[in-house]
Write a structure and sequence with these properties.
single chain; about 500 residues; alpha/beta; Rossmann fold; Serine Threonine Protein Phosphatase 5, Tetratricopeptide repeat; DNA Cyclobutane Dipyrimidine Photolyase, subunit A, domain 3; 3 domains; two-stranded antiparallel sheet; 21 helices; binds flavin-adenine dinucleotide
Length: about 500
Amino acid sequence: MQDDTICQIILYNQLWDQYLYTNYTHFIYIHNIWKINFQGRELHLNTNSKIIDYAGWKQCIDVLKEKWKIAEFLIEKSFISGIRKYAQKHSVSQFVLITPVEDYVHKNFIKISRQLKEEGITLTFTKDEHSFFLSHEDFKAQYKKPPIMEYFYRFMRKRENILMTEDGKPEWGEWNYDKENRKFDRKHERSWSFDIEKNDAWIEAEKYYNFHSKFVFPTNRSEALELLEYFLENHLDNFGRLEDAMYQDDAYVHHSLLSSSINYWLLTPSEVVKAVEARDTAMNNKEWFIRQVLGWREYMYHFFHSYKDTIYIENFLNHTRPLPEYFWKDPESCPINSLRVTLEQVHKENMSHHIQRLMIIGNFALLCNLDPHELNHWFFEYYTDAFEWVVTPNVLGMSQFADGWKLATKPYVASANYIHKMSDYYKHSDHNPKEKYTDDACPFNYLYWCFVADNKETFEKWRQQFVVKNLEKIDIEKCRELKEKFLKDQY
Ligand SMILES: Cc1cc2nc3c(=O)[nH]c(=O)nc-3n(C[C@H](O)[C@H](O)[C@H](O)COP(=O)(O)OP(=O)(O)OC[C@H]3O[C@@H](n4cnc5c(N)ncnc54)[C@H](O)[C@@H]3O)c2cc1C
């Protein structure tokens, strides 16, 4: 029996019609062109995100129209004006919305629902049962505050019975196969070759935004399933071993690029995890991938919701320097090759893999004392897979320790030595990763030693006394001089 008295509002990240309330007749997607205010600043989302949003919904609405009678794609200045318009046109006074996954969007809709109530229109929220394995209520029932990720991950493996034996032990005996991962092959050939053709909705969205994208992401379920299959067939077998490797001419190595498809609801985290679990491949690949989705992805969501009231006001290391201009435009003017390549790629494709995010961009920002909140804003604007619940804990917690290291259990900072070990970036650079003080020394070296000197106690707390001990061999005054000059040149 179809209910034609209620209209479901569909949000930009709810891109799969199967998840909607199939007994309703009315659906609207309000594509809004309002200015998004995020933490007191205007948020200019990257065009790829806007295209996925627009093209994804164009296609979803078409499917809905075929199945049901009334589904509309409205382009409006605000959500509220779209709801009012629809209510009037179709004489519907009840609207329902699956609770937005982003807190600032949820708060905005709560405000809207109060306003609408006065006009006789109800807007109710229902539970999001699709974005994560575990609801935040269930998480809170289990934990007073987030435990360390490893314990949470083991809990999730048991709870979901993923990679577990019948007697409740981790399959193949270990929880973690890390020692087989994090390798770097000096000889490497690019093999990432999945291309999605721009579909009609994508082309329409490009016209709408007057933008030509250089990299196409899935915008419908079948494209996302194809990407998943491509990853399983071609890259999962090397995923673990090379998960931290970085190559100048191979941006994605063996990563899946599935984050935007999962975050926009084109794939469920559960089906992705089960597909990997079912695959015949070495345990280090399976375990590592499943750790990312069942462990880290879930953990970040619950961590964010546990600390969302404080995370935006904390700046534990008191870093306040603005981001250099090349983060926002002309990334080719960045003077460090590894950072330049990564920034250029992010500007072009709105994507990079996790080590580029953590150990190139995040590391650089931390070592240069850049403002973590401005960096969070930057990540949010530039990445296709960025949503508040995932970008904020990754940037402010894991990468910048702005949360007073509630999240990170070790420092994600490194000198050029690490970047040299895990990449071929120095083959294409005038900087020498082995030098600290010479004209061709890689800035990551002297920046790193200044950071260690400035944060000795924190390193000791991290049980990294050996790093502090190495300071004895460093001419820290020289490093500080070089840092000052370097920073001056960046503005
Ligand atoms: C500073 C920083 C910012 C980040 N911002 C985002 C973001 O805005 N959106 C986002 O989805 N991920 C973010 N991540 C996590 C991670 O970098 C991306 O999920 C990953 O690079 C996406 O590429 P992929 O799909 O090829 O991932 P793969 O390497 O193939 O990993 C598989 C999947 O695991 C999940 N995953 C892995 N690591 C994480 C993590 N730390 N947090 C949450 N999910 C994870 C993703 O769903 C990803 O698709 C960030 C990490 C850092 C260090």
